[in-house]
Amino acid sequence: MAARVLVVEDDPEFKTTLECLLTSQGHEVDVVNNGAEAISFLEANEERPDVVLVDLLMPGIVGNELLEYLRDDDKLAEIPVAIVSASPQLAPEGYPVFPKPIDSRSLLDFVTRAGW
Fold first, then answer.
1. Which of 9, 25, 3 is CA-nearest to residue 84?
2. Whole-prediction pTM
3. Residue-wise pLDDT tens digits, 78-91
């Protein structure tokens, strides 16, 4: 089953890599550059993503702030979230973490399972 995935990533090359990887497996991908854009996207769209992939270190609203926003919103709190970061040691507990460079198979397995 294909999932609708929101990718929150500021690195242009890595963003393209994630988008290509996910779409090649049939997933629908929305990409935003940072936490502020993710919040705007989520507030503007009634259809929620099935999965959110969040980088931690971004300009403006950083990943940890976005995680708090998602957790504190009743409509968004149930969406599976994973962290994709070059600084996995900064990840709060309770989230799957995929260090950069990512293990593509593990990330795809997570997205597929979470998107059910």
1. 9
2. 0.96
3. 999 999 999 999 99
